[in-house]
């Protein structure tokens, strides 16, 4: 299905207005010279720094994300949305879990390494929870 010419024009105008609004705000607005320098030393753009700051991630916390191996801004925000700090997110990601599945396993009191052992032994979360309740553990 092809969009009408007027719909395409409206889309173009909306994007143009959005870009114009974004361009009107100074990129490092609201940051001290020290903060700007700290973000720049880490190779983080003004836009990314602003996005991370809005999510409560300062440069020292960003360092934790880098150490955990998670540096993509969307990934950081997704892990944060699922309640994970950098260290825990890194452990879950290293164990092969995405934020959604990690949250489900963590909600059932599994830690990343243990959850990975259960999953690698062929157990889904429900079965792992039931077997653990019976005092069993996965065989490596």
Task: Give a brief rundown of this model.
With 140 residues, the protein is mostly helical.
Class of secondary structure makeup = mainly alpha
The span between the termini is 53 Å
Mean pLDDT: 89
Portion in beta strands: under 5%
Shape: elongated
Blueprint of the fold:
Layout: H1 5-24, H2 33-41, H3 46-54, H4 59-68, H5 73-81, H6 86-94, H7 99-107, H8 112-120, H9 125-133
Describe this structure in words.
The protein is 66% helix and 0% strand. The protein has 140 residues and is mostly helical. Helix 4 packs parallel to helix 6. It starts with a helix and ends in a 7-residue tail after the last helix.
Any descriptors?
66% helix
């Amino acid at each position: 299905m092809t969009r009408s010419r007027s719909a395409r024009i409206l889309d173009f105008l909306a994007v143009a207005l959005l870009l114009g609004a974004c361009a009107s705000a100074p990129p490092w607005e609201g940051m001290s010279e020290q903060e700007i320098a700290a973000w720049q030393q880490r190779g983080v753009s003004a836009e990314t720094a602003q996005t991370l700051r809005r999510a409560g991630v300062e440069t020292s916390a960003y360092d934790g994300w880098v150490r955990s191996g998670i540096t993509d801004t969307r990934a950081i925000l997704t892990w944060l949305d699922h309640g994970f700090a950098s260290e825990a997110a890194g452990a879950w990601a290293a164990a092969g879990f995405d934020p959604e599945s990690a949250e489900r396993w963590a909600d059932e009191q599994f830690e990343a390494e243990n959850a990975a052992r259960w999953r690698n032994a062929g157990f889904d979360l429900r079965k792992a929870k039931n077997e653990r309740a019976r005092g069993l553990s996965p065989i490596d």
